[in-house]
Amino acid sequence: MAAASTGLSERIARQQFEDVAVVHTTSKDHASYYPNASDIVLKLIFNQKTGAIYGAQAVGQKGVDKRIDILATAIKAGLTVADLPELEFTYAPPFGSAKDPVNMAGYAALNIMEGFSENVQWYALSDELAKGKMLLDVRTREEVSRGHFANSINIPLDELRDRLAELDANQEYIISCHSGLRSYIGERILKQNGFKIQNLDGAYFLYSTVKPEEIVHD
């Protein structure tokens, strides 16, 4: 396991700047269909209005140094999160994906900047649920059987459009999946149907890693 960081931490960035936003993404270090692909969890700290990149952190088995080197260069060059999806990297299945983890972090940050997504950080989840919000888990039943959030609702993403009537239009929801992609799709579906919805940043994968004691195993 390797970890690396560049720039400011979230805590320092929030002390020094306003409009700080954070996004976590989980992507494979190389093409997922090629053997031995492993996860890289990437945290990007940026300005929600200007897109300025304040810092980044990453954890994974392989390729962590490469991604943080790229983001360190991006910070030094004054690039913004809007530039990250446009960066081009060497591609071959054993070494990288067509869309690199850095590209994906840029897309996720842009979704927040452009108002397509509103996230809740893992450390704020308990407080948000205490306010009366409900947690909607869109993972499959098989995934949920291996571990799930307490007091959550499970509607697999593939069934969500057909089961909207089961949700309360007056209720505020926080949506989660395994790593964030399906929950973003679910968030868009629900917003388009008039629901009040936020996305759990980093999703189940991150939350179960930092707070395993709060995960239920039936």
From TrEMBL:
Pfam families, alphabetized: Pyr_redox_dim, Rhodanese
Start and end residues of each Rhodanese domain: 129-216
PROSITE patterns in the record: RHODANESE_3
SMART domains found in the cross-reference section: RHOD
Gene3D superfamilies, alphabetized: FAD/NAD(P)-binding domain, Rhodanese-like domain
Signal sequence, renumbered to the chain: none
Protein name: Putative NAD(FAD)-dependent dehydrogenase
Originating species: Streptococcus gallolyticus
